[in-house]
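Incident review: delayed structure delivery

Summary: a single-chain prediction request sat in the queue longer than the usual turnaround. Root cause was a stuck worker, restarted by the on-call engineer. No data loss occurred. The affected request and its eventual output are reproduced below so the record is complete for anyone auditing the incident later.

Affected input:
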Amino acid sequence: MPKELSPEVSELIKLLENKTKLVAMIAPSFPVVFNYSEIIGMLKRLGFKYVVEVARGAEETNKQLLALMKLHPDRKYITNPCPTIVRLIRNKYQYLLRYLTPIDSPMIATAKIVAKEYPKYKKVFIGPCIAKKLEAKEDYPELDILVLTYKELQDVFKYKNISPEKTDKSEHFDLIAQETRLYPVSGGLSQSSKIIKKFTDPEYDVISGTELSKKALDEFIGNYDLKILDILNCDGGCINGPGIVSSDSLDRRRQKVISYWKRR
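Output delivered after worker restart:
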């Protein structure tokens, strides 16, 4: 096996060679890199029995968030789907930990659904985020999630000589969602959960990008009108994650996700 492959890529290749029962959980930013439904067919030909949308888990994230806000309507909240933001708060803004929503991220919610739907299957998350590796290993080791970026998945496809075929166009996800396919775009959580309809402009804020995120966290407590901060570390959201290799502009990436969302 080539030395340049990452540990996660090497692990997945070994799992495939050992005929391990596998479920792929693909993040909703996938249209930036892959075509639907080619990616599903490629994953199944690679050796995955099931391929599910992490947008399905995002539905549970939204439900948990809305239930929490209904239970404690007077509290302030910082959303937790972004593991980089979670770690930033843990390391540099410990005084804000009490405001971090104690709910499942879309990846974790999806993993729990998969564990019930497909017991004894190994869960493999595929997405744009490197920090998801830390979330899986450090925060939820009991869920046994292997995390790969899109770039790493492309390395696996190359190693296994998997490329798109005409038959892939007939494939479909085994677990789906619709509204939450907007999640990887900055503000996707607020829109899909209908927060934008439940609160006034001063009561919620949508932030993405490292510098703006730090500024928003610095000002969070002093912003008395603000009830919920929808925050992602990457500029523009997860469509701009480090695990994505693309020459597309940020606007083009956003349009790809929106177009897939509109397909219903």
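Verification: The beta strands are 22-26, 50-53, 77-78, 122-127, 145-149, 204-208, 228-232.
Action items: add queue-age alerting; document worker restart procedure.
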